[in-house]
Amino acid sequence: MAKHISPLKKLELDLADELATDKLGQELAQIAADLKTNLDGVSMPGPDAGGRIHLQGELGAGKTSLARAFLRECGITGRIKSPSYALLESYAVSNLYLYHLDFYRFSDPSEWLDAGFRDILKENALILIEWPERAADLLSDPDLLIELVYLPAGRHATLSALTEKGLKWLCALTLKRANISPT
Questions:
Q1: Among 66, 76, 131, 175, which one is least packed by beta carbons within 10 Å?
Q2: pTM of the shown model
Q3: What is the number of helices (H) and of strands (E) in the chain?
Q4: Contact 55, 67 (CB under 8 A)
């Protein structure tokens, strides 16, 4: 992956179980997709939606579970497939495009270039990438890097804001978890 700049902010969380991982995904979706409830009571992406989140961790650490909860919270219904074999699953909610990529099967970073994903990283979209390290330094740093690690009970998540947008997301998440409304 790109040589990381020093994180602007880090947040360390212990996730007791899969429900806690799902909750984190839901909270991040509300913030990153700038979800707003319309007059019909339906959550829709707001004008500040978009950005990139990278998910790292061992097999089974919860990357796909977090991504599924994130996508569900954004309004994706039906089956949400892991992109492990297709490499990319794309969704549209209102005017927001959501891309879920998984680079686990890459054996060489140049496969990222050959797959043609560079163009979607330029679009105004919300992008989740599992196993970004498989693309080596061909990817730029994300707004938010989430590292998931097994614990004897549950998982540990380290969220690192690498851009101003990521910093805004982590500050909003910290406030949300403390039940403080931003002014």
A1: 175
A2: 0.86
A3: 4, 9
A4: yes
Strands 155-161 and 9-15: antiparallel
Contact 135, 88 (CB under 8 A): no
Whether the per-residue pLDDT at 2 is higher than 60: the answer is no
Could you identify the residue written with the tokens 């579970």?
65
DSSP state letters, 32-98: HTT-EE-TTS-EE--TT--EEEEEEESTTSSHHHHHHHHHHHTT--S----TTTTSEEEEEETTEEE
Identify which of 98, 91, 11, 8 has the alpha carbon closest to the alpha carbon of residue 51: 98
Fold of 9-37+48-175: Rossmann fold (3.40.50)
| Cα distance between residue 60 and residue 76, in whole Å | 22
Strands 96-102 vs 144-150: parallel, antiparallel or unpaired: unpaired
- Where exactly are the structural domains of the chain? 9-37+48-175
Quick one: which of 62, 61, 59 has its CA closest to 134?
A: 59
